[in-house]
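Let's practice the habit of predicting before peeking. Look at the sequence and jot down your guess about where helices and strands might fall. Then scroll down.
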Amino acid sequence: TLPEGATVNDLSEILQQQGIAAGTSFAVFAGADTFPKLESAYPFLKNTVKTSGFEGYLFPDTYHLFKDAVPEEIAHVFLKNFNNKLTPEIRERIKQSEKTLHEIIIMASLIEKEVVSDEDRRMVSGILWKRLQLGIPLQVDATIVYAKKRNNLVSPPNGRVLLTDLVIESPYNTYKHRGLPIGPIGNPGLSAINAALHPASSLNLYYLSAPDGRTIFSKTLEEHNAAKQKYLK
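Done guessing? Here is the structure:
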């Protein structure tokens, strides 16, 4: 079982835990920059694997795999499921959004990591798309966590992002670089994908996750800073 939001590296570890021989080599395989056979079978991979491999397109679900399956066979199973999950309704919604599938999956991967409830996800989706339109850095903490893992940097035990982390040089650092990161930061499920496709409209521009699990939304930077003082001491 691949949980929502899990990364390619997480899947590699899960495969190893399940005694599937290809688990040790799957992450390297899935991070390569060209897969002629698979790109031909799944056109949505074109122009995406060159920058981020299969990250974002290994659909979270429960699978039955042979223990001697090779990486390409495993990828095929996951990619086929992803393709099947893209219903005609979802494909039409992507077309109406005037965004690419890759942009939607990247956004969904951010939403997947940031908030849990469907309502909050739609609200966060609206905020992040709005920040992109306004040219404001997304400043999503989950991208920092992902960037640190890719750079083999150690995170604090509590998983918090430190001020010193915000200057990490990485195309996934949404504090340092404007716009979407160059690729997904995990593999999103349908809830996050639907949230990316159906953002809620609001006056909010900021949000934070309180220790009790609530998402606190703010319209201005002043309100956001006050919320940080109140909830994140």
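How did you do? The first helix runs from residue 8 to 17.
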